[in-house]
Amino acid sequence: MQIAIMSRNRNLYSTSRLKEAAEARGHEVKIIDPLKCYMNINMNAPSIHVRGEELPKFDAVIPRIGASVTFYGTAVLRQFEMMGTHPLNESVAITRSRDKLRSLQLLSRKSIGLPVTGFANQPADVPDLLDMVGGAPCVIKLLEGTQGIGVVLAETRKAAESVIEAFMGLKANIMVQEYIAEAGGADIRCFVIGDRVIAAMKRQALPGEFRSNLHRGGSASIVKLTPEERSTALRAAKTMGLNVAGVDILRSKHGPLVMEVNSSPGLEGIEKATGIDVAEKIIQFIEKNVKPTSSKTKGVG
Questions:
Q1: Which residues of the sequence carry a binding annotation for Mg(2+) 1 (predicted)?
Q2: Total-model pTM
């Protein structure tokens, strides 16, 4: 098959591993920077161009779209979809998962466990908002934040009110969540492919830090999931419509709580912590879902 990988940096671990795994299984791979693409949108022959040249038809596309380029990246992915290229994750599912508030509302509708979350627009509503999430300590998150950036733990009610009012004064969109103290600064990343959780790791924050993101110095180790945690991860990914997802779960006294569903989960941490060849499993999933006999690409099959 001919596979396109949408990535801004071909040297990133996840991008290079996916390319390596696909080529090892006999596929042709092209890495495409979505911001260098431009599109011809028409009803007869939609196309994508890069530097004056039209891209060939691909059998499948693996989107590795960073949060900062979600709007343009998903527009390019939609163009691939219009051209008949099979996406690993569909553009609508990526857009859905990137909207933190919408994703939590969708998960809530499906009765999937979540930290109690509040959202408001007016400073006058802050006292009631804090009561909703159980008061302080609480976690305040920028809706546009990623990798732990824009996440604040307010340990007192006064601190929470000050931070929320400051964000509101800057016209920033935030949500406020209950603090799950019993998680102990740790969360679980469940890596979902299709209808299976193929790997899982526990991420532990540094001492004095509550954010367990590996980008912030957290450590990773292999972990055994409970049946309820496995089921929660699968239901969360399915609710977002994602074939491949990193579902982040907190262990609470009320059971597993979903923090976030990531549509472009990194491979480095999970592969090194578990020893599982996640990249190869992603390529195998593509092979099962895109049959060469149904390809429209000339010379393939």
A1: 248, 260
A2: 0.88
The residue to which tokens 């509302």 are assigned: 105
Q: Which residues are annotated as a binding site?
A: 141, 178-179, 187, 211-213, 248, 260, 262
Q: pLDDT digit string (tens) for 269-300?
A: 999 999 999 999 999 999 999 865 443 433 33
**CATH code (residue 235):** 3.30.470.20
In CATH, what number is assigned to the domain containing residue 139?
A: 3.30.1490.20
Q: Please state, in angstroms and rounded to a whole number, the distance separating the CA atoms of residues 44 and 129.
A: 51
Pick from 164, 179, 194: which residue ends a domain? 179
Residue set of the binding site for ATP: 141, 178-179, 187, 211-213
Q: How many domains does the chain have?
A: 3
**Binding residue positions for Mg(2+):** 248, 260, 262
Contact 152, 166 (CB under 8 A): no
Q: Is residue 275 in a domain? A: no
Residue 268, class by beta-carbon neighbours within 10 Å (0-12 exposed, 13-18 middle, 19+ buried)?
Answer: middle
